[in-house]
TrEMBL record:
<dbReference type="InterPro" id="IPR011545">
    <property type="entry name" value="DEAD/DEAH_box_helicase_dom"/>
</dbReference>
<dbReference type="InterPro" id="IPR027417">
    <property type="entry name" value="P-loop_NTPase"/>
</dbReference>
<dbReference type="GO" id="GO:0016787">
    <property type="term" value="F:hydrolase activity"/>
</dbReference>
<dbReference type="GO" id="GO:0003723">
    <property type="term" value="F:RNA binding"/>
</dbReference>
<keyword id="KW-0378">Hydrolase</keyword>
<dbReference type="GO" id="GO:0005634">
    <property type="term" value="C:nucleus"/>
</dbReference>
<keyword id="KW-0694">RNA-binding</keyword>
<protein>
    <recommendedName>
        <fullName>RNA helicase</fullName>
        <ecNumber>3.6.4.13</ecNumber>
    </recommendedName>
</protein>
<feature type="domain" description="Helicase ATP-binding">
    <location>
        <begin position="1"/>
        <end position="147"/>
    </location>
</feature>
<dbReference type="Pfam" id="PF00271">
    <property type="entry name" value="Helicase_C"/>
</dbReference>
<feature type="domain" description="Helicase C-terminal">
    <location>
        <begin position="158"/>
        <end position="326"/>
    </location>
</feature>
<dbReference type="InterPro" id="IPR014001">
    <property type="entry name" value="Helicase_ATP-bd"/>
</dbReference>
<keyword id="KW-0347">Helicase</keyword>
<keyword id="KW-0963">Cytoplasm</keyword>
<keyword id="KW-0067">ATP-binding</keyword>
<dbReference type="GO" id="GO:0005524">
    <property type="term" value="F:ATP binding"/>
</dbReference>
<dbReference type="Pfam" id="PF00270">
    <property type="entry name" value="DEAD"/>
</dbReference>
Amino acid sequence: VLAMLSRVEPGNKYPQCLCLSPTYELALQTGKVIEQMGKFYPELKLAYAVRGNKLERGQKISEQIVIGTPGTVLDWCSKLKFIDPKKIRVFVLDEADVMIATQGHQDQSIRIQRMLPKDCQMLLFSATFEDSVWKFAQKVVPDPNIIKLKREEETLDTIKQYYVLCNNRDEKFQALCNIYGAITIAQAMIFCHTRKTAGWLAAELSKEGHQVALLSGEMMVEQRAAVIERFREGKEKVLVTTNVCARGIDVEQVSVVINFDLPVDKDGNPDNETYLHRIGRTGRFGKRGLAINMVDSKHSMNILNRIQEHFNKKINKLDTDDLDEIEKITN
């Protein structure tokens, strides 16, 4: 954000900085940061290139910073010509690993980058740099300066991790109720593998008297943004979600993350990066966090063991029938 703000010429009323985000929610969150940091810069204006933001054909944008999702930004640059890509001075690609994992996003990002001037500054950010990210970076960022954090500087050091052994979905729900009965939780995020499980769990928690928000991929982007905003404001204390919310959503009051289902990839192997992103929703802003994993089969125990090995961090067993033991984990 600082790089974009420092390169903008506010007197020039056309887009000079482009920032791509993989989702509508992340685009809005980054936009809010730009608005906060740029509030002493009254001439600075920001436009959102996201689905649903309709402009008249032939219109030119006067805002200096445009933040949006790849498909809409590409349309604004090429088909609709709202943006002159040759005038862009800074191009930012956020959550690059997600962009690369999503084939459409990857292609669109490269097509946008090819329209930009040769002297345009490229900034590429990713919390997890796998080989695929490096290969992609070499395509879009010539002769880069690289800033890397060590693995051990990742979020895991501030998060206590536990697992609970269960036999089925109902036992997992009972374990969850026991945890809520024993410790005070400011706000929690609970991750499920499918929309169906997320819907069932949200309904069951509501019956128990919890203020619950439900977030899943089939919701309209505006609905999703409204759910996140309510959760951020503390109107709901529990957010039940599928992977759509594993990345980048920062809510300061989240003290506990629960993996009702462990994250796996399409082949059923542990999805270590998603695990890191999920539990990284807690232990933020210098606070300590708590991550609890529900294990309900030999297969999910195997997934958990492989996640432990990958991060070289022990995940301790928690007996949720023992209220004293649950109370101790918050000390």
